[in-house]
């Protein structure tokens, strides 16, 4: 948010982890992050890494240890649920741990995201479904099974 015109991360910079995420997916992601090449100053992010299975987590840590020797200037952020801090990945990477508290008010964050997710020229796209021609939207309900 310090550089409002800087683009948001692209699909190759973010890995959204689930219990079904495979070791191959994590391996490809870590290689993109840790193998030195001329990709610029990307910041790679693993979201919900605490949800990876034990086997996948072990393999991910081993690969990380192997690959980080070849690149000391990688930029990797691993985000985990604080309620699962004793799962494998948060424990294995605990010496890198940084507790994060948002530094900006919620309204500023929302304005920043609206700037990046608004469709520039309204057309007959799916963005017309969401408020203010946003190309991303969240649909939620407090009740289950209401057709979302």
From TrEMBL:
InterPro entries assigned: RNF213
Gene Ontology terms for molecular function: ATP hydrolysis activity; ligase activity; ubiquitin-protein transferase activity
Gene Ontology CC terms: cytosol; membrane; nucleolus
One BP term from GO: negative regulation of non-canonical Wnt signaling pathway
Keywords: Ligase
Top-level taxonomic group: Eukaryota
Protein name, as recorded: RN213 ligase
